[in-house]
């Protein structure tokens, strides 16, 4: 893992520090665009990856922090948030709303707060990994930290 971080990740690291997260963002030699890629590069189980997935719940953005082993059940999520329809946001929408690209969306550090759901199965891990603002950056944190920094609602999303 290399130490020179892209600007987006440096800004995110400052945000994380301000939120009291001690995990340091790490840049990996290869893309962590998918949960499989991230788990392989880090050397952890795929279900210890907290994948940041942006959905549109009707017309409102919704960030789902899902275990890398899970496929989000959009019908269940729609019921949870009281939406008629929940769909995965297109890449351009993800970049516009989060300021980050698909495959690198962090749980925080977006231009505006985003309502967030957190997969309850992530709680079983002492350490989980989230994207660090780019497809090649990641950082460790605890489940409690993830819930606290996102203000997320813990629920079953798969």
Describe the structure.
Pfam families: tRNA_edit. GO terms for molecular function: aminoacyl-tRNA deacylase activity. This is Cys-tRNA(Pro)/Cys-tRNA(Cys) deacylase ybaK. Residues 31-148 form the YbaK/aminoacyl-tRNA synthetase-associated domain. The chain has a single domain (7-155), classed as YbaK protein (Alpha-Beta Complex). Helices cover 28% and strands 25% of the residues. The protein has 5 helices and 8 strands. The mean pLDDT is 95.
Helix content: 25-40%
Helix/strand order, N-terminal first: HEHEEHEHEEEHE
Per DSSP, the total helix count is 5
Total count of strands: 8
What's the mean pLDDT score?
A: 95
Task: Quote the CATH topology.
Answer: YbaK protein
Low-pLDDT stretches are none
Strand content: 15-25%
CATH class: Alpha Beta
Report the principal-axis shape.
globular
Largest sheet: 8 strands, mixed
**Count of the domains:** 1
Protein name: Cys-tRNA(Pro)/Cys-tRNA(Cys) deacylase ybaK
GO molecular function: aminoacyl-tRNA deacylase activity
Domain YbaK/aminoacyl-tRNA synthetase-associated: 31-148
Pfam family, one: tRNA_edit
